[in-house]
Each structure stands twice: as structure tokens, then as C-alpha cells.
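Margin note from the TA: students keep mixing up input and output lines. Inputs are the sequences; the output is the structure of the whole complex. Example:
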Amino acid sequence: MLNLLLRKLHMGRLTEQGINSQIAQIPSALPASFRQSLQIRHLACGSCNACDWEMTALGNSLYDHQHFGIDFVASPRHADLLMCTGPGATQLVNAAHETYEAMANPKWVMAVGDCAINGGVFKGAYASSGGMDRVLPVDFKVPGCPPSPDDLIKALLGIMGK
Ligand code: SF4
């Protein structure tokens, strides 16, 4: 056990540090009442799933999003923020609109990853909308292919003013 502990201390953190300088520039934009608790609905809109897996990592013990009052909810009716991955696949556009409409006001949309921002590697593809801002009103963008969990948690804490 002691050896394991020493090895872990020596090894340090295995996950990647965030590299997106733009993340730090995200201003705090949410009203004060949303800064203690932020409920998120995740919407995969044609992603390759790598962005989604990085989002899943936010729940592990290293990032521990619940520690910050951030949680993922099963229904858009309970969500404040819609985190979208993927370029907005055309067959999912209606579902994206319905999801957004189901959210109560005030509500925000975050484009997660290069695909969601501008189509990324799917730009120009026949079944791609070319970015989520062509589908929904995007408020926040987190670049990367994929963005690391470090980038994502910084972005979320940034918009919460933490
Ligand atoms: S941004 Fe990169 S990792 Fe994310 S969905 Fe697009 S191709 Fe996949």
C-alpha cells in the first residue's frame, strides 16, 4: 500500500492539462443565482464521441463536478445549460430544437469542441450543419478536438464566476 502511494505521488497527475488559452477568457455571464448550482443537459449532436467521453470524465474523483454544484440532469426541463457536442448532424436538428424548447428560461448553450463550434472535421459534410450556432443560439464555446476535462471544468467554473 505504501509503495502504491509513493508511486502515485511520484507519478503525479496522469490526465492532460488544459491547453486552450481561450478558456480563461470566458467571462462570468450567469446571473448570481446560478453561480452556486448549475444543472446541465448533455446533447450529442453527431459527435465522434471523444468530446462526450471527456465530458464524462468530469464526474471522476479528479474533477468531481458535483463538488462545485455542477450536475448533469436527465431531462432538459431541469437544465440551465445545454452542452452540445458534434457539428449538428442534420438528422438531429429537430431533436436539438425540441431539447432547447423544453428548457425553462433563462437558459444557455455551450458548444463543446471544434465540431460544435464550426463543424470541425465534419465541416462541409453533407449531413453536417457546420456548427451548433447554426442550429441553436450558442452562448459559450470551448475549443479543442476534443477539449480536455481540465478545459471543460475551467470553462464551467468561469461562467459560474468561480
Ligand atoms: S471536436 Fe474532435 S473529438 Fe469532438 S466530436 Fe469533433 S472530431 Fe470528435
